[in-house]
Write a structure and sequence with these properties.
4 domains, flat
Amino acid sequence: MKYFLIILLTTQFSFSQAEYPQDYFRDPLDIPLVLAGNFAELRSNHFHSGLDIKTQNQEGLTVYTAAQGYISRIKIAFYGYGKAIYITHPNGYTTVYAHLKKFSPRIEAYIKKCQYQKESFEVEIYPNPEELPIASNEIIALSGNTGGSSAPHLHFEVRDKEERPINPMLFGIDIKDTKAPLVTKIYAYPKDNVSFVNHSNTKVEIRLIPDKKGGYTSEHVEAFGSIGFGISSNDKQDLAPNNNGLYNIQTFINGNKNLEVDFKRFSFDESNRINRFIDYELYKTKKTSIQKLFVEKGNDLSLLKDAENDGYIHVEDNTSSVYKIKIQDFKGNETWVTIPIIGKKRENIQNIEEKKLDYLVYANQATNLQKDKVSVYIPANTLYDDAYLEFDVKSDTLKLHKDIIPLQKNYSIYYDISNYKEEDKDKLCIAQLRGYYQKPNFINTTRKGDSLIGRPNTLGTYTLETDNSKPKITPANFSNGKWMSKENQLTVKISDDLSGISSYRATINGKWILMEYEYKTDLLTYDFNDKIISETENNFKLIVTDNVGNSSTFEATFFRK
């Protein structure tokens, strides 16, 4: 029997090793790996698809390929991943390296050639396997802070053949972590109007009491009917003070497994389901991410497994039960939460009914709302649940409820602008009013005749704005008539007050030049090493256009030997 058990355990271990090779990928940096963010942790509108590796608060660290292969994709964008390389490996996996500052000379020459051919800084290229082969331990780039990065770091991913991101630590990427996860909040959720928790028919926060073993025990919960729980938890690793996400959550009722959340792998197609997985209203109103440990309609996340009764527990009158939550990080450090439950049915509890507004939107039906010169089209299955929505229009301001209800997809807002002067129509855009000061934020707007159309993915307050202001252009390191023989770069600052920068085009002596755009600093940068110019006297011209078509032109002459 012992011999059989050893064989069984060895077989299971070998299968795990075979599923995710442990010695195939090397670390992409040659410094101790410290994480700013880990795999599948909760982000705005998505799960994080890789590891954010800190680069010691600096740019320019050497980035190595994790294994041999070939570059199958290069993407350069203002936002998102910024400068990114995708390498496909012989074992079928693809590794991704993002927010890069600069590529290695061979790759840099290849991509700049493409940029000059397309006359665009933003490009997306899919090289053939023989074009850019990559050897083991080859330097492919320098780390940076491009795109949507808020601080210098390397975003590193591993994807399978179906382009699904997988936790890179499953492949042997090692992060020092001896600390157990922390729990900050627990909520209980009655499923329906005949279920209650602590005399309430709506969600209730449960008080947690830390115990001597590092876990938590809650106060006794009095409940009846079908109940779900939600948890706010995070993990801290040894070499960094920041909070990171979890690796695994399991729930148990009276010792029987009730649900598992396995943050091992997911697909990009399901990532926006995060807004159904968390308590979206609490996230929007209190910036608290409560992960619901039960499965609601429309939540088809592959992270959720073994959901007995969809993760809900059923509490009968005059019963005692124990609900437990096990929270685990990748290194196996565990934290337990114990919730003792007393079943008690009370007859004198008043159901709290949802406030009935004028407009009931059925989730499975398309809905048209219209008032004055504004209409809203909500396609079927935009909402997860039927909901009463506030809808009103005053002047050019549309109030469509509050952004506290998660949506599955975009809807459409239509403004009839026939009452505007013809010369003003092209300067109009739709903006969402956000924050305490209701600051207008441009949303992508298209015009068809006398209709202005926006397709947001959140509810909220929207308005028409007129943008008559041209973008601003300011030279940063030169002036008209300046000698620039000792300069390596030419830099210009550009900005726009409302609709934002849409495009720009720069030339020197009539020839297009590559100017890299960093939106976080509003800087355009041209590298003289591109060797586009050979004359002493040079005419620089830059045209910048915003999202409603306002354009500014800047011209200056500089000298260079």
